[in-house]
Q: What sequence folds into this?
DNA sequence: ACGGTCACAGTGGGATACCAAAAAGTTGAT
DNA sequence: ATCAACTTTTTGGTATCCCACTGTGACCGT
């Protein structure tokens, strides 16, 4: 589901949600900072309702914490939270690639291969943004090939947290190479190899997040 | 009837959510039937606001479908949805029991054993309600022992769908026996056995849901 | 200084009334 | 019968008002 440009009739609540989400993920709103409905409504020139809905949505995405009758705050993640998150993500992503390996067709593999090739090319050109986009498509196509809507739904919810906690993977070439291995195993429907390498793939991105957290103290 | 002591400060939105959820799960609102904010608000003598929030919550729980600017409807599940759901659930529950097996302590195993014993006793007495409650506690303690909050969060979201799709497991004694096997494997920290038997445990409950669906003609 | 009490401001939850925009439903012309 | 135009229904959103509860800090007694 790509950009969808000038959607003239975008719901206010959706717009507000996107703005707040970006504020949080991009660090413009720090963990622990207050989200006061009235203030945000004033800032964005909307009524309190869309803001309320946006906050609810972000709570369900796990990046905001709200208690009744007080302000909501941007969630503060602990080392433990990151560990928990990584464990669950490992299981879900492994599942995706295994299902995709079992169910893919030639067309799907072709799409993944093209995404991988674009990723590799961008990585070699040190084009961070391009590599990130291609890698994202690699994952999206995999979810599609897994043909399990509920899994897709779950991953979608996790995606915000993922963006926030892990940011982009630094060494683009290493990631592209890992994707190549995953792709080959998928094409060969080699689920056993996937069960081994996907967790390793994820682990390589995890330390970065933990280090960033350590720097902030927490 | 209303057991709950007059919790004076229950949020209306929470109350409305619970009522609607029960209506859906218990079949008082059929799949496909409309959820009209205004009408529900009138029925329950509240304003549209709590109803709106309740509907959003139920959408995030996956039992209601809402499109912009029209009424929401109770979700209609297809055979495929149930299949998808079962696949994801299998992975998550396996994860829970494996983590719980790796991380439990004596006290935790004791709590699970007592829950199991109450379940068995209730099952022998043909006490459906009692067995269901004890089985639920069995699962809850397992989630707790898994000590992964995010996993617990995920399972909580799934729980409504679970209740709705699968209802109660029919043969209480068979379920209790499966729980015994899981419990013993957990106590022995035998994750390999768990990886084998948990999926089997879940599969035994799945056919019932599919048959019920088939009767309704999907 | 210190710890607890208490009053008050801040904030979300909810009610009410109203409007706009889009979808759903109805009617009528062809 | 089909499709276009019209009407109705319904949600999304704005604007206010009020209440219950939370958080905070001043006050007080020790």
A:
């Amino acid at each position: 589901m790509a950009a969808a440009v000038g959607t003239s009739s975008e719901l206010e609540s959706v717009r507000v949600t996107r703005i707040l989400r970006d504020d949080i993920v991009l660090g413009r709103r720090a963990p622990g900072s207050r989200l006061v409905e009235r203030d945000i409504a004033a800032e964005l020139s909307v009524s309190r309702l869309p803001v309320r809905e946006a906050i609810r949505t972000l709570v369900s995405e796990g990046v905001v914490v709200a208690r009744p009758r007080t302000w909501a705050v941007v969630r503060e993640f602990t080392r433990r939270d990151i560990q928990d998150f990584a464990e669950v993500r490992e299981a879900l992503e492994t599942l995706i690639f295994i299902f995709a390996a079992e169910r893919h067709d030639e067309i799907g593999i072709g799409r993944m291969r093209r995404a991988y090739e674009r990723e590799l090319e961008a990585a070699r050109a040190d084009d961070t943004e391009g590599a990130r986009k291609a890698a994202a498509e690699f994952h999206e196509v995999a979810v599609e090939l897994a043909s399990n809507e509920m899994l897709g739904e779950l991953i979608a919810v996790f995606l915000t947290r993922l963006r926030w906690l892990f940011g982009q993977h630094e060494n683009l070439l290493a990631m592209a190479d890992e994707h190549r291995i995953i792709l080959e195993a998928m094409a060969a429907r080699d689920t056993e190899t996937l069960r081994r390498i996907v967790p390793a793939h994820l682990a390589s991105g995890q330390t970065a997040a933990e280090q960033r957290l350590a720097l902030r103290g927490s």
User: Anything to note?
Assistant: The mean pLDDT of chain B is 90. The interface with chain A takes residues 11, 53, 56-57, 60, 62, 68, 80-81, 84-85, 87-88, 91-92, 95, 99, 148-151, 153-154 of chain B (CB under 8 Å). Chain B has two domains: 2-74, 80-217.
